[in-house]
Fold each of these.
Amino acid sequence: MTLLDPTRSVTRHVGARQERLEDRPFLVGDGRYCDDIDLPGLLHAAIIRSTSPHGIVRAVDVSDLTVPVDLVLGPDEIAAASDPCPIHWILPEQWQTERPLFDGRVRFVGDPIGVVVAADRYLAEDALDEIFVDIEELPAVVGIEAALADTTLLYPDRHTNVMARWTAGDDDEHTDAVFAAADETLTIALRIGRVAGVPMETRAIVVDPGRPGRDGRPEKLTIWTSTQAPHAVRDAVADVCRLPQHRIRVIGPDVGGGFGVKDHAYEDELMVVLAALRLGRPIKWIEDRWESLTTTTQARDERYTVDIAYDRDGTLRGIRVDAVRDSGAYFSIFGAGPLFAMTGTLGGPYRWDAVNSHARAVASTTCPNHSYRGFGQTQATFIRELAVDAVAAELGVDPVELRIQNCITPDEQPYQLRTGPMKYDGGDYPTSLRMAQELTAAWPAPPDDGRRWGVATSIYVQQAGVGPSQGNPHVGLQIGSWESTTLRMERDGTVRAYVGVSSHGQGHATTFAQLIADRLGCEPEQVEIIHSDTDVTPYSAYGTAASRSIAVGGGSAILAAEQLATRLCAIAAELLEAATDDIVLGSGAASVRGTPARSIDIADVANRAWQGWALPAGYDAGLVEHAVYEPPEFTWSYATHTCRVAVDPETGLVEIDRYAVVMDCGTVVNPTIVEGQIHGGVAQGLGPALCEEVVVDETGQPRTTTLLDYLVPTSSLMPDIEIAFQVTPSPHTPGGMKGMGEGGTNGGFSCVVNAVRAALPEVADRLTQTPLTPARVWRALHPDQENP
Amino acid sequence: MSAVTPATDVRVTTFVLNGSETTVTVRPRTLLSDALRHDAGVHGTHVGCEQGACGACTVIVDDVARRSCLTLTPQVDGRIVETIESVAGPDGLDPIQQAIHDTHGMQCGFCTPGIVMSLVAARRAGVGQVTAIDEVLDGHLCRCTGYINLRAAIEVAWSGLEVSA
């Protein structure tokens, strides 16, 4: 694909720090989130959940119920009224390819069993206290080791708790040969803790069955839900609740953050849909924070044995990982996809002779483990960069110089990965590291305050944008990854863009408007971005996820705008008696290049198009264009993160003192918004590095059920961040954008962990489990002492 | 927990909401956050945790910032309550709101109203910039911004204010 340039337009909004166009309602309290939706006759739901980590549901007893309720929808009715929910990522040896809403068992504390519906939420929760669920308890299976022991099976008709198993990259024979030929090898055992996504708005759904159609079922079922992917919800409702897709309308209103955990329809949400269908009345369900921290899908929780082979001159030879992921009670929509992404991106920016992974996903009686910002690439970066730092320590060399020595150079691009039919799409990784060196060189020396100081640098190459749809089935992914945009210019020259990707904080109303305005010669304020309504907006299997909105969705917006610009220029050329190629758009007019006096208002052009007057041969009336962008290849953004930390040896407390990022995400549409994504991404990197951890005790009970136990970073933990850009436009995407939303998390997590290890080199081999809480750091420093 | 009888167990609570006398008739256990959102008709106050941890629900009661999710509705009887809807004036945004916009201090916007209310209360109390950043902002959770631009917003909003550090 050739890189399109907005040559038909004289405006240049891409690259500008355009102020966000969507802010005002949120600033004055006029956001319209799910819980702000009210409907006549609205009822409220609460979810009946398992209090046991594992068991067989014998009965749901409502005989003690005194609270007035409108409906108790129990598991048997749910099972009878629903079909299984498909899983969209099928990996080798994976037997679970769909999941019923209820199969007679519960497998984690919080597992949904049914729905109670009442006049308000308080009453619905009162009713929960009076509903007795008789569960025949089975042993809990907590932790990877317990799962692998297969003493208790979550799915008794299977002989193992292993849910999927695969190898990736070079084969074992080749890898063994590379390791045998290398001067040195090194082995590290690592554990990465379980985390929760914690969007500030919890999950939420409002279901309105509307009026019955001629078959008695809803003519149009309308659902408002806090989602990243309205079409994925629509598809799931159709599959599970047995409704045709055209009779389901899913709307994403304002959404208070997603971070991966809102990329699919959940079992409890589908149960609420079934309840609304049963009652024929609208129902609202708002997840509370306890539910959010125990039933919204979690992430990571993996253990690794990492082998790295290298030569004494610093040449990295091979990396080999044996990885096990605790997938929790069952596979959610993308199954063990995050671990697959880890194995596919393990190599990062370095030349290797061998990259090899053995991966397993196991089931345990804990909350399902699924998508979260980084989607396995955070783990790949963590494993690789920690191992490279360990090699530098062994060799006694500067870890940044070791990285530069082994980095793929620009003249080796496009570089063929060892882990799949993918090529990096350009960039200068060594310069990224050099730029980071320059930033850190300017840092003042740390104070001599008794704390231990450490600096670390991490570099990652992130698969963003997601590649061609037709490639997805080859890796087990059952959905396409193209995007489209429909553009309509109104009679007055203003523009509406209907896009498939959703916005829930990413600023699409601004950045997509910048992309489109540049092609049409208008101002971003004249472009409205419309998203998240399956009756109106284009199909998107993914929605907003995987750092792909601006690269893929934005690519389709550019293509549609180019088509619309061509149409406008052709009409204007007819009116101005000039050649189409000589028309330029800008300042609300179409004019002849070099002869600005020969000009016509865009509104005049648009009006003629809508009236069908004076159109060139071959052009129909109207000003609507639709464009599909199918990414021909993956895009790969990359960044170097470097930070300095101070560790208090008395308390184990880590402070992040300095932080710098050198980012290359291709064309930067809006630097302010990209910087904001880096800030938020880094916060979600350093949280799991230092304080965020989902804890489930050995009996299977969750212990981190409030935001006073599950510690999300506050401002005092977050350093300021220096940011520098490289700009290497992707050759594959219209506009050259690469996508970067998850990058801050990828770089931040490993960078902070490695800086703590660098601060305490004598105990680094005990700092191998995240998060590095004060207690863990203190215990590493004082292995022989009781707790302080 | 025993069930309540909804028809009889209600209480009238009257308070000044954003300058207007307001009466809600709700069960005494109704959280102020719920009464504001669902009975008093102001939905800009957001509920993020009902655990007092995130700060999204912060409102001002008698000039003091409070978690409305930890406040029972009858507790504000006879008191003055301010929510995010009261902050912008007829001439436009309050300087705190404007600064959050200008510095890109919000992304999804869910936590923003609570942060604005805490900062409005702090400014009114003469809290200085350092304390506003180190203590007031630290009482809020934001998952999108990483707080950096919110700190910048406070610096902008506090510049020119005559307050102590």
Amino acid sequence: MIWKHCNLFIYKQLHHLIGMGGHMDRTLDRLFIIPTSWMDEEAKGVLSVVSQWAEKEILSKRLDYLTNYQTLFIEKQKKLLLDIGLQRLALNSEAGGFGWDDAVHAPGLACIISEISRADPSLGIISAMQYAALAPLMKDFGSNKKLIKQLAKAYMDNKLYAPTLILPGAGYAGEETPLFKGRSILAKAKPVKKGFVISGKDLRPATNGNKADLFCAVCSGKDSKTCIAYIPGDLDGIKRGAPIKTTGLNACTNSDISFDDVVIPKENLIAGDQAVEWLYTWFNLLSGSVSIGAALNFYEILHEWSSTRVIKGSTLFKENPLCASVLAEVSNEIALSRMLIHDLASLIAKPDHWGDTLDGTTKPYTFSQMINTRVQQGVMNAINRGMELMGSAGYAKEWHVEKLWRDVKTIQSMTCSTCADVPARMDTATYFFDCRSLGQGGAQ
Amino acid sequence: MKHFDEFSRPEEYISPMDTHLRRIIRKWADEEVIPYRREYDEDWKDHKLIHPAFDRIMGQLGIQKSLFPHECGGWNLAASDYLFRSSYLLCEEIGRADTAMAVALAVSFWPLLVILVEPYKNNRLIQEFAPMFCDTKKAVFAANAMTEPQGGSDIENLGLMKGRTIRTTARLDGDEWVINGHKLWPTNSGGVSSLFGVPCTTNPGSSDPDDFAFIYVKADAKGVTQGGPYEKAGMAADKNSDIWFEDVRVPKYYRAHGPGDDAKAFYQLIPFGQVASTAFLTGAMMNLYERLYEFASTRTYNNRLLKENDAVAAVIGRIAGDIDICRILGHEAAMMGDRRNKPYGKPVISEDVVAKIRNIKDFISDRAVENFGRAMDVLGPYGADREWDIEKHWRDIKIIQLWMGGKQLCQMEAARYFFNCETI
């Protein structure tokens, strides 16, 4: 129980740092309900601290935050990840972390990522990557003590540490590649005496590739078998392309990455489709949670807008039946999306509550694909519809809505891997209809 | 490869100017806009990169004088039978390269249409303003200063609001109008325009169309103050800002037509604006097709070209199908405008033309927003890249769906017309 004491100590530190005796924003939680019983007291405590950080550090002074974004983004990130210590949240307690290194913490992690993202989705996605990268190392998924030790050193260091994922996606015409459920795997891992040699050209990280400290790259290994390589960003042979200008998540500058025979130790590779499915499952849960956080903040802004603006000279927006029907659609999308994400978290945390566990990682993987696709579509629709009410104010940077809109769209496209929702549909059809050739390069 | 020109439009609607004008505009777009447009977002405030391209098309190629009569040095387009269709091709071709440039250019025509198009012509004002646009090789912009802080889209909802909520006032003092008020968001504000068309009221709170006044104000008139441009999600080539009119004095004859006719002439602008909006969108969607074609023909899923996978083909096929249908509808909207002077046509301010054109704009806006978003998802992690251009269009075109009263006003206009609603 050492880690419990450790966490109690951390809470005291956290409350001291934040300087507020706090409670979470009950208004939002009462409106967009989730089963709070799925979170333990510890998770509720951490969430409370994150809520206070979000309110105090960003939401209450957003104009200043956005005006000095480049500087304050790092400053607020340091406060959250280093001072408060969330960088080590998903590390095991033996390594000095909070000990949230098992699936049972999925609901808590989803809530925390949402709350960070309510303040800024870019901060949320960076934390999401930190936690997703550790998922294949979770204690209930197989232990790789050497790699955990190596990563713990980086996560525990008093410096920001940013992993990113390189997932399979679109291939190139004329090149036959190994596949992960239809998606091309463009990185290769070749076994050598010292470990593995990683190669791949112009690979596209999910986000933040330009500054990433660690690349978790899905590779094809021996006999084209799928694996995940953990590639520290400072190794020889890593080439980062020019910064890419993107629609949103502008604080997470991306670049294409080339691995020119990069050598990693043996322990930095985790083999098997199940590990990749598990990585995707967590990526879907946490990227979905980022968009939920953005949606909750969008709701707050739209609520203020529709309660203070009039049309036709005197009628409040929200009291006009047509506008109200749009507000209902916005609420509907956010509320249902949030429930779905927490269902997914529960499925990950307590699979036995959701039927048998015979399908291993394939069931949570498939549901995570379905749910995240639906959540991204729902949140995007909510913001799109709400912007229609706000008119040009929704489009001006001043109101902040357009940033949420761009950030969520960037996340939605990123999580598609390629071809919109087609790969997720193929996964779903395969799971429910026992399709044999979909995603295997088979005939159509 | 199929060419984007092959998206359908009714051949019999095509104006005599189409081939020639399209060729000129497309050459300009391909050489002077498309190679540089990925840098436009960073140029939103200064327009150092953008402005030379405007000078070329508006001043040197002479598009800005096209509406004016021959005797003023113009092309007499405003008096032609194909005003709407020519405007459509212009807006579509420019929109393919950059919808914000298309907007800025088209909106320069907007206030001028109030005095240039039969049956509401004002020859004295045409003579007054023509040299400003026709005697220069530099781009000259104009703007309609319509939206007010408290009114949102009320000004575009003239059918119902009848100008009741307008707070910008015009008071006659001898031979001058004295204008006071505050306007928001006009395209080509933020220091860009040389001339404003300003909807005002001569009797605040009145719903009488006779009290609606459309008055021209030169941007350098004493008492006109413009704010700096707003920072927005996109549309970098289109500057918007606040404008304040404080005891601004203009000659009495700067009122477009006078009581009653000002409101009718101004109301013509709604269909013009909606048709231009559809053209911006179909132009942008044709470029979407070009870029999506390249991605779907060079990248693979399941080791097949994207376009050769049945499920992906269904997605991109739907996108192309929607573009085809939207283009037909857009040309239909333009033709409704150009039928205005024909025995079988109806005035552009008639209830059914306004409602049907708004309806088409609403439909095409929704398809555009949906298809650009979908196309970004087809590109997956590349969808948000500036390099693929689709995301820029996605950001830019969202405001087209929102402006001029947005979706809700289009829906209300359709309901009023088709269901004889009397109070909405």
Amino acid sequence: MRSLLLASTLVLLPLAASPWVQGDDVPERTAAEPADALEARRLRALYIDLFGRPPTLEERARWLGKGAAELLDVALGEPEFWRNWLTEELYFLLLIDNFRPTSERVLALPERLAAGELGVRDALVYVALSASFDRRNPGPDTFVTVVLEQFRGENVQASPKNLAVGKKLYDGTPARFLGQMGRTQADVVRLALGDRHALEVLLARAHRRLLDTEPERRALGDWARRLERDPLAFGGIVREWLLSSAYQARLETRRTLPNHAFVRALFVDLTDRAPSDVEVDRIRGAMDGLADATPLRSVFARLLVDSGQAVLPKKAAIDDPTAWVAGLFERLLGRSATKDELRTFVTTFHEEACRPATILLALVTHPDYATW
Amino acid sequence: MFSPEIPRRDRVLGASANRRQFLAGTAALSAGTLLPGLSRLAPRTQHVILVAFAGGVRTRETFGTPANIPNLARLAKEGVVYHRARTANLGHFGASLSIFTGIAEARGIRENSRGEDPTVFEYARKELGLAPSDVWIATSGGAQQANYASSIHPDYGARYAANTLDGDGIFNQEFKRLLDAYGRPKEMEARERELLDRLRGAIGGQRSAEDVARSANDAKIENYILDELTRGTVDLRGTGAADAKALRVARNLLSIFRPKLLGVVLRDADVAHGNFNAYQEVIRRNDAMLGELIAAVQDDPELAESTAIFVLPEFGRDADLNSRRGLDHGDGSDDINYVSIAAWGPDFQRGVVSNNEVRTIDVAATIGTLMDFQGRYVRGKKLPKLFA
């Protein structure tokens, strides 16, 4: 119900100047609204949604107060945005840890997507044809089931016919699968990802990820048609979503950060650098091993703070503790501190046993920090 | 070795247990809402260990090849074994989840989200008022298996979740090396710890009693993880290492937290798709690690006479080898649809082999009977001929 309401009140912001919106893809504007200036909350959320991490200090200084559309125009052309999209998709397919694809073809996808050399559907075909996907989903039953479930949203137990036919193709027997002839394991992937329904499933997944709502049926059909017509339209569709009133509405509630985003956030916020994929994978893997990762998140926050790598001023160098604490709330939690919070923090700061690290730890080990 | 003489002294139930018994019986008569088949309450079992010997394991390679499973075979010999336990190929995730919910439910193979129906862990925590540290699951399958901790059911859910630890995810060399590179977190002085708590408590207003309790539980788990990283679990390697770690973690959790309900979920047997010999190797290794877990129960006087153990796969595998000389799971044969359940405990019969048809989802109902909780949504029935 809520998603219907949000979709129907979608407000589109200025689009024509964007490299992500071209020709007849420019949708009709339903209302005009000036681009929102990026404040702490929105900037942090947009960075996490686009890149899977918050902004560094330099990026923050660059973008605070600028328009969201301007940020999006830059971000959607960055390989880092597409790397984050691919990371999310690989996680969705559980191609993680030992199953993370290592082939050149898959590793090159973010650059190729950013350069407009291929679209998201083709990228997923490459992923599903990788040795990692095959190793992760061994045998005809598992392989075809996962392709149908993950790429098409099918319940194979409820309608086993497609599974039975797909298994024939997997074994090299020609058969009509999803309305078209095929005869190989690769055909299972190509045909499963080849129609508009597969695009709807792909877009609905991205919509849920970014807006936390189910897309409205008709809008989803429109987006899928656009993507079918123009395989490179995905960036433009994401741009619309992130500039919409639905995204504004999504920011009114906070969602729990997935472990990989939490690890990246912690690195950036404490050390002002993005971690390597290897660092993220190892820590994320450990956190994924807990239904509630809070204890391990806390352990890792303490490790980073105590490692000497955290960017922390000396206590004596903090001339204005109130401003310093207020700045930390804005940067780490994406909101202003309340008067009570500020009072408690500043009073505590002046206690001898309180280090700047104590303040930082209190913020990054609090449940609010693990949300965006 | 683990053949303890189980004393037959009468157990004296506490007042609350007697009251619960009475209420449960009354409720059963008046509303008919108790687990199907619940006719008596087990008087001695205080701890339950439920091992999902999962990954797709046929009876042919377990009870059909006793040399593969000396420990499981002895456990069964001293308890009850059901060789005709009906199950379904609902995917590893769905079929394992069904063991915990008592409801056969299809789930996507790579689905990575909580189920809709409550698990035995949630029933136990909510209805018996158990603390988080009383209910644990040790897994070997990473992110997806963390979903066994709890459902999204509005009456149960995360508030009643089991603590879940994935042995291989946490206790691996790479993670240990990474932590070593950063150094251990420094011990915090008591005063600084107090200040930290005060600061955290000030964020977002008053903390609820539930939040405070959760923080205390988190602190215990933090310490456990840091300690476990220095034990031998990290060094387990080779084929089936993830399962071995899950069973080792379970053993260590048992001695440290003494949980009332401990689940273990394995999965390495799925290597069978491409390698039948490796599959058998996993089964043998898991049996050896299971032996460690059983010994930990047996060597502890209190646990030895108050612990029940259930071991069962989620489903079997195909009847015939595939072209890669491996075993898939999709032919719909009896080899895949029937598995064996072994049950051992102070309240169970000994030396019983049953060929009656039961279901893997019956285990959830049976645990409800043992632990004295209602399982409102459980569809299985108490296992027949189990109780002494």
